[in-house]
Amino acid sequence: xxxxxxxxxxxxxxxxxxxxxxxxxxxxxxxxxxxxxxxxxxxxxxxxxxxxxxxxxxxxxxxxxxxxxxxxxxxxxxxxxxxxxxxxxxxxxxxxxxxxxxxxxxxxxxxxxxxxxxxxxxxxxxxxxxxxxxxxxxxxxxxxxxxxxxxxxxxxxxxxxxxxxxxxxxxxxxxxxxxxxxxxxxxxxxxxxxxxxxxxxxxxxxxxxxxxxxxxxxxxxxxxxxxxxxxxxxxxxxxxxxxxxxxxxxxxxxxxxxxxxxxxxxxxxxxxxxxxxxxxxxxxxxxxxxxxxxxxxxxxxxxxxxxxxxxxxxxxxxxxxxx
Length: 323
What we know:
Structural class: alpha+beta
Helix content: 10-25%
Number of domains: 3
Number of helices: 7
CATH class of the largest domain: Alpha Beta
Strand order of the largest sheet: 9-8-7-10
Strand content: 5-15%
Shape: globular
CATH topology of the largest domain: paralog of FGE (formylglycine-generating enzyme)
Number of strands: 10
Largest sheet: 4 strands, mixed
CATH superfamily of the largest domain: paralog of FGE (formylglycine-generating enzyme)
């Protein structure tokens, strides 16, 4: 019938044109998988210069400040919509990171199969840059919120990337003085087996069970029951990278952010990554170790995980409605 024909026509536009197909195999054109999203810039909205000024009889008022929009343009604040930022991004991972990151190395099987084959269903996502990871958290929030509203359930805190401090708190698992998420100063257990996926010794890359990524939950979790907080893949955080950030950020829930624009110098586009990965030595697996990558760069050794803020102050009230 007609609706089915319209549906098929719409779908056909998502596939590669015939002259770009390999052996004429039908394949999704990932260039067309664009996600449009919005977020509220609370930091700009909170500036005193951007507050709403009432007139004397409180029958109206106006905004007098300015904001920098998502295009990097400084515009006057006319109403609340000025604080709503808009973005667009391609959602498909960069499948060629396996080739680009390591030249003179046979990685074609990963480039061809890693991102879609069922054998890798439980492997960590890689090839996603910081901008894509951040957009995914917004999409996931919208998806879950629409579902909960349809069920008449209360809304919850947004999904987002963890801050650097939050990530380290979670990685420590309550073991404040521990070097690694599992506790202690060693990377082997009492049986002599490695307890994370990393690069232990030169020329013995597979001694920990894998020479690249490994399926999640292959190693024991930390005391907070979180898996792979060290090794396997490094993880994006929400924070911008600055070598001296610890000296000026707040002691209580430190958070340093800068949303770099396209024309900004590379140094301002650095984002903190944590946890170490399959290609790193043990130093980067330490809970206090930090590194960076550029927000528009995708790598074969960087993934991410989402978090939600806890609502309330009772640390023992483990109720799903509090997140």
